[in-house]
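Quick one, T. Sequence first:
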Amino acid sequence: MKKAEIELDVVVLLVAALTMLLTGALLFPVSRGLLPYYENGVYGLFLFIFALQMVTLGRTPFGDAPRSKALIAVGVVVASLGMITCFIPEVLSRVPQILLSISFGLGGIALLLQMILSPDRFPTWRRYGGVFRHLIAGCAAVYALSALIGLLVVRKDLLSTPMTAVVVLVMGFSLTYLAVTLQKIYNTYPEAVQEPKGELDLPIERAMILLTGVFMVILGVLLVPVNLGKLPFSGSAQLGLLMVIMAIQILATGASPIGSFPRTWLMIIIGLVFVALGATSCIIPWVLVAPLTLLIGCTNILGGVLKLKEILVPIIKGPRGAGPVPPVLVRLNLVQVAMNLVSVTFGASMLIHDLLPGMVIGVVLAANGGLLLYLMHILYELDRLQKTMSQPAS
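C-alpha cells:
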C-alpha cells in the first residue's frame, strides 16, 4: 500500500478537527437529553491537544516559539492539567475553563493579527495566489472561530446548545480544510516544511514517550486516593485519552502497541478511527468503556508478549559479536523487559476483573510511567555514546 506522507502539524490539525467534529455532532443529541455529556472530558482533551502542539512542534496558542526546556516544561504542565481534568471530575474547578478561554480566545485573536500584520504571511500568501488563497481562508476561519469558541467557553449562555454545536462543527470543518490545504502546500513546495526551531532535540517518538510516561505516572498516583474513596474518577475519559495518545503515535510515526508499521493510508485510517473512539469516550461517559477496555487490554498483552520475544530471544541465543556489552545497553534491555512485563500485567488486569487490587494497579501504572521516563534518559545516553564513538581519535 502507498506510503502516506503527512507532516506532523497536519496530523495534529486532523486530530483537533476530528475531535471538534465529533463534539459538535454529539452536542445535538446531548441538547435533547438523549445522551449524557462529560464537559471535563472535552476540556481535558483540548488542553492535551494544545500541550501536544507545544511539546512536539513548539507551537503555542499565541504562535510559534523555539523549543526550549522551559517551553517543554510548560507543555508538560498543561498536558498534566488536561489529564487530571479528564480523570477527576471538577477537581480543578474553573482552571481548565480559564486556560481554554485564553488559548482559544486570546490565542485566536493573536494569531489572526499576526497573520494580517506579518509581511511573511497575508501579503506574501496573497501575492503567491493559487493554493495560498485557500491557506488565507483556512487560517482566517480557524482563528476567528477559535476566538468565538474562547468566548463561548466562559459565556455558555451566549448561544443555545444547538447553535454552539453548529459553531464547533464549522470549526471542525475549517480545521480539516486548513489541514488539507497545508498538506497540498507541503506536497507542492517541500521546502515549506519547517522543523521545530530551538536548541532542544526532541523527536516526535521521544515526545510521545514523555507524554505517555507523564500520563501513566499521573494516572497511577491518582488511582491511590480514588481507590480509597477520596476522589471521583472517570474511567471512560481515562480510556478515551489513552486511545487518543495511541492514535497520535500511529498517525505520526506508525508506532502501535503491537509494533511499528509503515505509515500507509491504512494506518492513517486506523489512527483516525482510534481518535474518534477516544474522543467519543471522553465526551460521552461510559458508552464505550467495555469495547475500549477489551481493545486496550488485548493490545497491551499482545504488544508486551511480542516485544518480550523480540528482546529475549537474541539474549538467550547469545551475543553474535565479540567484546563486552556497554552498560547502557544492558540497562536499556532491562528497562524494556520490565516495561513489557508491566504492560502484560496491566492488560491482564483490564480483562480479568479483580485480578489485582486497585491500589496495586495504581502502583503498576506509576511504575510503567517511571520506566518510560527513564527510557528517555537512556536513549539520550545512547545518543551521547554514539557521538563519542563517531568522533575520530585525536
